[in-house]
Amino acid sequence: MSLLQVKDVSHSYAASHLFWQAKRRTTVLSGVSLSIEQGECLGLLGTSGAGKSTLGRVILGLEKPQKGQVLFQGIDLYDTDTSTRKRLRRDLQVVFQDCYSSVNPRMTAEQIIGEPLQNYESLSLKEQQRVIGELLERVGLRSEDMHKLPSQFSGGQLQRINIARAIALKPKLIILDEAVSSLDMVTQANVLNLLNELKSTFGLSYLFITHDIKAAYAISDTLAVLDNGEVALRCEDKTQFLSSTNPSVKRLLGSVLSEHPRHRKLSKAPRS
């Protein structure tokens, strides 16, 4: 049994309309199916607006889809009781793109990382501080950093704190929603190395949502492409991705700029 199974999920949002017009909806996901095995990282690629983040929220149990199922450890997240959903939520964590908006600016690193521990564990203050100190060191920070506020960290350091919070309960699956896209290249590489190390150490599974092909290649075992709310391609062997003739892959590759400006080709603006 797969750790995560998304079965024929469809979702839409109400489009803006005038009060006298009939209510219209914009389809964001259409019949999406995918699965993730224990210890696997699935890289979910797609351009902006493809539906990647919406799918992430549906998997996290934050937005109920109009159609389909999300099975986590064999249980439908949207067809179970509250206590079971809370138990499953322990094993399903997330790291979002914006490391700053993901935390309360008035809370210390100790309080931020301690939130899931307080929700699910019964630890003494001394024991919780010991665990938080170990988590900070695990993600490349110092245990003394637990007393600092978010404003005292760089973006890369704060994202490491978000990762420490995500792994605090030793979950089975972490949704990484553009988790490195706002970081500079050096910090991004360091965080990807950290994620790979944690995956190996704890046997974690990841859904790595991104538009960045290089980042996806650096961490993913398998790749999938989401295009206009549909899974356009799934590559069990990620080396097949670059040679794919799939139109969605070609569009995604075409949207990537060369690293050096001299080699970038920009289309001319249309004349007015």
TrEMBL record:
Gene3D superfamilies: P-loop containing nucleotide triphosphate hydrolases. Residues 4-253 form the ABC transporter domain. It comes from Paenibacillus sedimenti. The keyword ATP-binding applies. This is Nickel import ATP-binding protein NikE. InterPro entries: AAA+_ATPase, ABC_transp_ATP-bind, ABC_transporter-like_ATP-bd, ABC_transporter-like_CS, Nickel_NikE, P-loop_NTPase. PANTHER family: ABC TRANSPORTER, ATP-BINDING PROTEIN (PTHR43776:SF8), TRANSPORT ATP-BINDING PROTEIN (PTHR43776). Keywords: ATP-binding, Ion transport, Nickel, Nickel transport, Nucleotide-binding, Transport. Signal peptide: none annotated. CDD domains: ABC_NikE_OppD_transporters. GO terms for cellular component: plasma membrane. One of its GO terms (molecular function) is nickel cation binding. The keyword Ion transport applies. It comes from the Bacteria.
